[in-house]
Amino acid sequence: MAIERTFSIIKPDATARNLTGAVNAIIEKAGLKIVAQKRILMTRAQAETFYAVHKARPFFGELVDFMISGPVVVQVLEGEGAILKYRDVMGATDPSKAADGTIRKAHAKSIGENSVHGSDATETAAIEIAQFFAGNEIVG
Ligand code: ADP
Ligand code: MG
């Protein structure tokens, strides 16, 4: 399998509980390498652009409000099959359905406040990485 890069966000519910290191430990234990990382406060415009695909969903307003409610840690993760691997490491969107050992099973509070984001496909990974990182900020 090819070496890929995926985009990750440690969401405000996790940063609020000081879980950045705990999440990163799970990521690294799974064999994914954090090749870029920064802690930011997203603007409303950034969050709306990032989640534009969900604009018509009933939870969109709540999701944007949540994503700008506190600091997030945006990351680029690299590894073999990184996109699907990170989706596995994250666990299901709804933490009550997430498998043991996943980030969301261990840490998520609810289907909305679910601790992490990970890209779902090659194309979205590239778009999401480019929204937050310049090429020279990613060092593999
Ligand atoms: P994932 O983050 O697993 O890819 P989605 O892309 O379906 O999940 O949804 C994006 C984010 O929107 C979720 O991670 C979660 O924060 C929020 N969300 C999804 N479904 C709901 C819901 N039913 N109620 C509230 N928030 C939701
Ligand atoms: Mg998604």
UniProtKB/TrEMBL annotation:
Listed GO MF terms: ATP binding; metal ion binding; nucleoside diphosphate kinase activity
Superkingdom of origin? Bacteria
Q: Where does ATP bind?
A: 11, 59, 87, 93, 104, 114
What does the record give as the active site? Answer: 117 (pros-phosphohistidine intermediate)
Annotated GO biological processes are: CTP biosynthetic process; GTP biosynthetic process; UTP biosynthetic process
User: What InterPro entries would the database entry show?
Assistant: NDK-like_dom, NDK-like_dom_sf, Nucleoside_diP_kinase
This protein's name: Nucleoside diphosphate kinase
Organism whose genome encodes this protein: Afipia massiliensis
